[in-house]
């Protein structure tokens, strides 16, 4: 007679044991399936090259410097300005032009200008050094996305200039200009008296807007979206705050505001993403981010003063900040995901972003760092 027949309880115990083992295996499988999550992508900074920005000067023969590049190199050239040197270089690391200046300089991807505070005639050059225009009034040139402006002596007036640098229109104010932003659809100007004025492309005033809400009204930073639909600002002392407003029926209507816990007396950056989904601003605590559709507000702590906020073609945001001699580049992915950073010591620095590559100037050197997500 089998053991199970002699002892029925033993058969029951074996069945219970097998059931328990099967149950444990099933639970383990279910746990693994439920617990598995795709790993988040990690950002990798990949050094590509480092060049000496001071190696070439404007007096060098351009043909010699272009021996490794084709004649159209300047079309995709990247502008830089560090200390008292400015110029252009290629993505592959060739210095196309470099010029030192004794007083002041302003540079963009398409042109640059050297001037002093009393210049009544200010030449404008193409990247290859050819003179292409001349500004025939005293002031401070400013190039912004293919648009040319000039801030006039006294600090409360400015002119919009045409392609040949003749004056298209001028606004003459009384309060000092403390913030400025432009797009193809308008010009937004902030003043020390706490007012914002939006001008159309033709110079006609569209509306005035005062963010208010502070003991001392002053506009510290202002941004205009590409279409002109949104404006944003950081303003005030004693109740400093961020305000996002939407253009409705020819007026500005506040749709989002936030009182800032930490205040600054410095001018700050306010910048919209290209697609107008988000607006970024610097403040004493770091980087503020607002979703223009949902009005969700987020902040990322960053130490020091934010010098530049730039957007890559995929929407990734790069932030250059400074604390003493220490500079930090921070990376933020939409909408508010802090992805990483790196730091370096320098006396002066700049940052430029293009198609997944980060170009960082530090004293006399320029480095290319490619960004990869794995």
Measured as a percent range, the helix fraction is under 10%
Radius of gyration: 28 Å
Number of helices: 3
- The 3D shape can be described as globular
Strand content: over 45%
Tally of extended strands? 31
Give me a quick take on this structure.
The chain is mainly β.
Question: How would you characterize the overall build of this protein?
Answer:
With 374 residues, the chain is mostly beta strands. The chain is 10% helix and 51% strand. It is built from three helices and 31 strands. It has a four-stranded antiparallel β-sheet, with no helix packed on it. Strands 9-10-11-12 form a four-stranded antiparallel β-sheet, with no helix packed on it. The longest helix is centred in the first third of the chain and has 28 residues, at 8-35. Mean pLDDT is 88; it is low at 29-39 and 57-70.
């Amino acid at each position: 007679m089998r053991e199970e027949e002699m002892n029925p309880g033993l058969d029951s115990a074996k069945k219970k044991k097998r059931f328990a083992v099967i149950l444990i295996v099933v639970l383990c499988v279910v746990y693994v399936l439920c617990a598995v999550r795709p790993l988040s992508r990690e950002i990798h900074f990949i050094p590509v090259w480092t060049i000496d920005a001071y190696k070439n000067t404007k007096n060098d023969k351009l043909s010699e410097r272009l021996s490794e590049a084709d004649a159209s190199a300047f079309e995709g050239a990247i502008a830089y300005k560090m200390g008292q040197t400015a110029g252009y270089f290629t993505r592959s690391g060739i210095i196309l032009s470099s010029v030192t200046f004794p007083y002041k300089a302003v540079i963009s991807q398409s042109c640059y200008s050297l001037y002093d505070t009393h210049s009544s005639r200010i030449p404008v050059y193409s990247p290859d050094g050819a003179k292409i225009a001349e500004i025939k009034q005293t002031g401070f040139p400013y190039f912004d996305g293919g648009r040319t402006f000039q801030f006039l002596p006294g600090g409360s007036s400015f002119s919009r200039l045409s392609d040949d640098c003749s004056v298209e229109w001028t606004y003459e104010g009384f309060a000092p200009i403390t913030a400025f932003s432009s797009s193809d659809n308008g010009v937004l100007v902030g003043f020390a008296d706490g007012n914002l004025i939006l001008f159309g492309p033709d110079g006609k005033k569209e509306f005035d807007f005062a963010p208010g809400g502070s003991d001392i009204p002053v506009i510290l930073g202002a941004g205009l979206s590409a279409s002109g639909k949104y404006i944003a600002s950081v303003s005030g002392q004693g109740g400093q705050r961020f305000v996002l407003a939407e253009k409705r029926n020819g007026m500005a209507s506040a749709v989002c505001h936030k009182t800032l816990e930490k205040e600054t007396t410095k001018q700050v950056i306010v910048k919209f993403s290209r697609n107008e989904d988000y607006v970024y601003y610097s403040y004493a605590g770091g980087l503020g981010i607002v979703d223009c559709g949902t009005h969700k507000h987020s902040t990322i702590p960053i130490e020091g003063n934010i010098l530049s906020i730039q957007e890559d073609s995929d929407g990734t945001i790069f932030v250059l900040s400074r604390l003493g001699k220490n500079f930090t580049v921070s990376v933020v992915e939409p909408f508010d995901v802090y992805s990483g950073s790196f730091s370096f010591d320098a006396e002066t620095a700049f940052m430029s972003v293009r198609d997944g590559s980060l170009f960082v100037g530090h004293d006399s050197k320029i480095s290319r760092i490619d960004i990869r997500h794995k």
